[in-house]
Amino acid sequence: MAGGGRGDALRALLRAANAILQQRRYHAALAVLKGFRNGAIYGAKIRAPHALVMTFLFKSGSLREKLKSIAQATYTHSRNLAYFVFTYKGLMALQSRLQGKKIPFHSFFAACIGGWLVFGENNPINSQIIMYLLSRILFGLSRLAVEKGYIPQPKQDPFPLVAALIWGTVLWLFEYHRQTLQPSLQSSMTYLYDDSNEWHDISDFLIYNKRTDSK
């Protein structure tokens, strides 16, 4: 009987929650909360696999230290993205309410404030996120410039030239000014281009990257 009472109370609570979720007057506030939820989950989904691979490929230390590093990176990325989405959507809702409509500047302003508050600290995770966005912004602005007629439509696909220039530039920087590159990129390129120049026997030529014994 007591179990049935708890079940009835839970069902009543769920019905009340669903009723609130259906009301338009709460939509803006609820969208901000769901944005926080989605930011946290998405940040964890994309950071955890990346941190797992990069940590076990390139970082030394005990298993405990590696797992702690993965958990910390995942938490930081998840938290920051959740805070940013919450701030952005909250400011968007506030501006729209104050002005009575949504205009393009609202998006830019809200994101600037969120970027300053949440991603303004110069640390490895924020740096990776900003560089990820920067590359996509450059592609997006280039396409927008063509769509708006500021740049003539290329007669041929410019992607091969872009790929050549990008790879030429990054390898030049790696070979002669590698301190200007992000540490994780330096680690990846060191593995690919420097470590492949060294070996002692078949073990560290085919099986291992570097020999760990002192032969």
Question: Percent of residues in beta strands?
Answer: under 5%
What's the story with the biggest beta sheet? none
Q: Number of helix segments?
A: 8
As a percent range, the share of helical residues equals: over 70%
Order of helices and strands: HHHHHHHH
- What is the alpha-carbon Rg in Å? 25 Å
**Shape by Cα distribution:** flat
Low-confidence stretches are: none
Terminal Cα span: 75 Å
User: What's the count of strands?
Assistant: 0
- The number of domains is 3
- Helix/strand class: mainly alpha
Mean pLDDT: 90
Please describe what this structure looks like.
By secondary structure, the chain is mostly helical. It has three domains: 21-120, no CATH class; 121-153; 157-199, no CATH class. The protein is built from eight helices and no strands. The chain has helices at residues 2-21, 27-58, 63-99, 104-119, 124-147, 159-177, 183-194, 202-207. α2 (27-58) runs antiparallel to α3 and α3 packs antiparallel against α4. The protein is flat and about 70 Å long.
Q: What are the main properties of this structure?
A:
mainly alpha, flat, 215 residues
Short synopsis of the structure:
This protein is an all-alpha fold and 215 residues long. The chain contains eight helices and no strands.
What's the arrangement of secondary structure elements?
Layout: H1 2-21, H2 27-58, H3 63-99, H4 104-119, H5 124-147, H6 159-177, H7 183-194, H8 202-207
